[in-house]
Design goal:
The chain has 6 helices and 23 strands. With 451 residues, it is an alpha+beta fold. The strands form 6 sheets. Strands 3, 4, 21, 22 and 23 form a 5-stranded antiparallel sheet that branches. Helix 3 runs antiparallel to helix 4. The N terminus is likely disordered. Bound molecules: calcium ion. The site of calcium ion has 8 residues, from strand 13, strand 17 and strand 21.
Length: 451
């Protein structure tokens, strides 16, 4: 349409030129006999030269061509160009996104490697702290000959080099001893060892469950060698298996099967001072079941606690209420409507089951796979399926503060449904996809941070 308007305007101007400057024509034949018509029009400014008119015509043609191109783009070519531009921009953004994803993957791998190195370094530092310094005679002689002002530095350098050498030569048996020694301290968690499978469940009812040893047994019927096990798959879980020791447990020979009077919910049960503590199915009731008398000796509702799938851990399974035991006693890990899904920790009286004190964290319960207590500190596991995950958060009830951490943790069988701490053994017990596994732990010294 714009082109037509332009042509109309151009023709009108040309016509006006003819009207103001009369034209003449002549007719003749060329050398080939063709008829030639020659039209003569006076120039607009009346000059006799044709050069200016030709230049002006060429200029007009150029502008006309330019305008036609512009009009063409405006009328017919806009959508195509826009679409082409968008496609080009989309392709560019897609490329940048792919590049960012690659960068992200690369950085994630670097972070994982750094976490692994940090954990290894922490272990080495802790080993050095506990190993008494033994200086060789040569070093002492060197120190005596050192200038007085430099002797202290010289000693430090020698001691450092000596300790550094010891780190590289420390035997495996010594490291094992260190773990046992440090595990009895109450420092922060530094390292979790490789999972060791003790038993694989025989049937589908054992895909997930609870297995434990009592860190502080009472009476004589059961000892700290007794192993307790509940296969937690099913709607009416009541069987509690007792094994004489770890050997019988691994061989699959229970010494007794106790039938609980009320069904168990999920995998949050624990054993402590001769009692099994567990959440009754589809309720917030905590039951204390005495293992010797085989009877319920106490029960109490955990105030405001969510249950049966309201605020479970990330793997679900009605893991709303998780009971735990550590050096300081019995704990409940759960959430409430008031906390809106954040983890609440309550210290329970093991006799009365009354809540003695509570702490509210800012950890979303459904974003972590499991949790356990060590020395009054809550630790959360980031994933229940990732073979290489981390203990990703720690909350200290002594200071009422929490922080993000990154202690490597392995889900060897990729479906970890229960993780609990046994302070007498300094180990974690876990149930990972039919496998009942344990992990050795390394704790820092009391009052010292792992970071
Ligand atoms: Ca737990």
């Amino acid at each position: 349409m714009w082109t037509q308007v332009f042509y109309v305007c151009g023709f009108t101007l040309f016509s006006m030129s003819l009207a103001e400057n009369p034209a003449s024509s002549t007719q003749s034949q060329d050398h080939m006999g063709h008829c030639q018509y020659i039209f003569t029009v006076s120039s607009l400014d009346g000059s006799s030269s044709c050069t200016g008119a030709a230049t002006e015509r060429d200029g007009l043609l150029s502008r006309l061509t330019l305008l036609e191109a512009l009009v063409s783009r405006l009328v017919g070519g806009t959508d195509g160009d826009t679409e082409g531009g968008l496609q080009e921009a989309y392709a560019q953004i897609t490329g940048e996104r792919d590049q960012l994803q690659q960068d992200k993957d690369r950085l994630a791998k670097q972070i994982q490697e750094l976490q692994r190195r940090l954990s290894k370094t922490s272990l080495e530092v802790e080993s050095l702290r506990l190993k008494p310094c033994q200086h060789t005679r040569g070093n002492q002689q060197d120190n005596r000959h050192s200038p007085r002002t430099g002797s202290e530095n010289s000693f430090s350098i020698n001691a450092y080099q000596e300790m550094k050498a010891e780190v590289t030569e420390v035997p495996a048996s010594y490291l094992l001893l260190e773990r046992n020694q440090t595990s009895k301290g109450c420092g922060e968690l530094i390292m979790v060892g490789e999972p060791l499978s003790h038993k694989k469940a025989e049937s589908i009812t054992g895909k997930y469950g609870v297995w434990l040893q009592d860190p502080d047994p009472q009476g004589t019927l059961y000892t700290n060698n007794t192993v307790w096990r509940i296969d937690a798959v099913g709607r009416d879980v009541r069987q509690l298996f007792a094994y004489e020791d770890m050997n019988q447990f691994s061989r699959g020979f229970p010494m007794k099967v106790l039938l609980l009077p009320e069904p168990v919910e999920s995998t949050g049960a624990t054993v402590y001072r001769g009692s099994l503590y567990y959440q009754r199915r589809q309720s917030r009731s905590i039951i204390r079941y005495d293992l010797t008398s085989e009877s319920v000796v106490n029960r109490q509702d955990l105030p405001h606690a969510s249950f049966h799938g309201q605020y479970p851990y990330s793997w679900g399974g009605y893991t709303d209420i998780d009971l735990a035991v550590d050096e300081q006693g019995l704990w409940a890990i759960y959430s409430t409507d008031k906390a809106k899904g954040a983890i609440v920790i309550s210290k329970l009286d093991p006799e009365s089951l009354e809540v003695k004190q509570s702490w509210e964290t800012n950890i979303r319960k459904n974003t972590v796979a499991n949790a356990f207590m060590i020395c009054g500190r809550l630790y959360t596991v980031a994933s229940y399926t990732a073979p290489d995950t981390t203990i990703n958060y720690m909350f200290d009830t002594a200071t009422d503060t929490g922080k993000a951490i990154a202690v490597p943790f392995k889900n060897k069988y990729r479906y970890n449904s229960m993780v609990d701490y046994n302070h007498a053994l300094g180990k974690l017990f876990a149930w990972d996809n039919f496998n009942m596994v344990s992990y050795d732990l390394t704790l820092g010294r009391s009052g010292q941070s792992s970071r």
